[in-house]
């Protein structure tokens, strides 16, 4: 796999491009029996920074038997607890393979893109926060335009953009699990994801 792959979440086949990209890497990792951890970083207190917890929420009912999940709307992984979570992972799991997922800012043309890289990501970099780099593989969604006043930019990010990215990334991750492990039917995922989205919409009213 190339060191950096960029996908457009608005493309109709973006889910399957993400699935195939992840499968190329995960197939080898699964064969090694290493624990695979999905670390969804962000907070529900900021629209632009809620991408990670939204993805975690969509996946929490689906990956518990296959992957280890950290970061949901109820229990987010953010700047204040990231170091503690990383220490917990280090103590509980031997040589884990961490897939780190987070939102990021970029140029106007890249908003809505998904970036997959075989390297750690730097949480909180848009806010100039000094946090440890994390992840053997990183998945980032470009939620808005970088520049000045990043805090305000994240606060004023369109929810549609974040939700679209969350849906594509969560589907891509789960379909990669289906393809590599073959443990459930795709229709099961679609039903559960529909119910999760329905519950999220109801709770926001």
UniProtKB/TrEMBL annotation:
<dbReference type="InterPro" id="IPR009665">
    <property type="entry name" value="YyaC"/>
</dbReference>
<dbReference type="GO" id="GO:0006508">
    <property type="term" value="P:proteolysis"/>
</dbReference>
<keyword id="KW-0645">Protease</keyword>
<dbReference type="InterPro" id="IPR023430">
    <property type="entry name" value="Pept_HybD-like_dom_sf"/>
</dbReference>
<protein>
    <submittedName>
        <fullName>Spore protease YyaC</fullName>
    </submittedName>
</protein>
<dbReference type="GO" id="GO:0008233">
    <property type="term" value="F:peptidase activity"/>
</dbReference>
<keyword id="KW-0378">Hydrolase</keyword>
<dbReference type="Pfam" id="PF06866">
    <property type="entry name" value="DUF1256"/>
</dbReference>
